[in-house]
What does this fold into?
Amino acid sequence: MAVVAQLVERWLVVPDVAGSSPVGRPDEVSVLEEDALASFDVPWVLIVWNDPINLMNYVVHVFRSYFGFSLEEATRLMMLVHHEGRAAVASGNREEMERHAQAMHEYGLQASIVRADA
Amino acid sequence: MKLGWVDGVIRIEFAAEEAGLLTVLAHQFADVVRDPELDDAPLLARLFPDAYRDDPEASAEFRHYTRGDLESRKVEAAERIAATATEGWVELDAESAAMWVRSLTDLRMMVGTRLGIREDGDEPDPGPLSDVYLWLGELQWVLVDLLEAS
It folds into this structure.
């Protein structure tokens, strides 16, 4: 993800994330977040991939305005994308994930769908 | 360029060359999406990425059903920028501003692809086009920030 170097320090405020380990311990991190999958028990996952063009605050904005995530959750997922290269941001049936993928492509994010057990 | 919330709208003051630049880029983008040439392939791959990274057939099917709709939405957003970016004060309500930030990603994708930005840390060679890229990034950054602050 891209940052606007001269602005980022002033604008990007991630107090809960910057000081501590943003994504938990490595062994807690899974691209296909297991707790999310277990709670839905469904076989398709939407993955958002890191890319060098999109700004960090824009990705947070997309996660907030499209998925309705809190600022904290949207920021956590953005940092996951940034550091891990990708993050699972939704799971559900295939049609639903395809709608999300199309929406992410409209926002200009790199998103793809995969079967949870793939 | 000055910008901020005033009476429920985001107001941006553009210099003539800034408004002209946005208009030209937005038209260029719409042209590329409507009538791409062979060397636009890397940009199109970013604008309309594979929905199934390990399944070309499913990706082709997804593209078949979504691409036309995506193209027209992206063109519509770029045309909104071209129609509203003028010299002097421009007023954007929240809906227009959201459309602007979405299309600014597309415009930055177009310019960034031309500059050869492929992965994090790629620094374009200094020059007019890289100045344009950085300026678009600053505009998008501040607009997103204003939207999130509303």
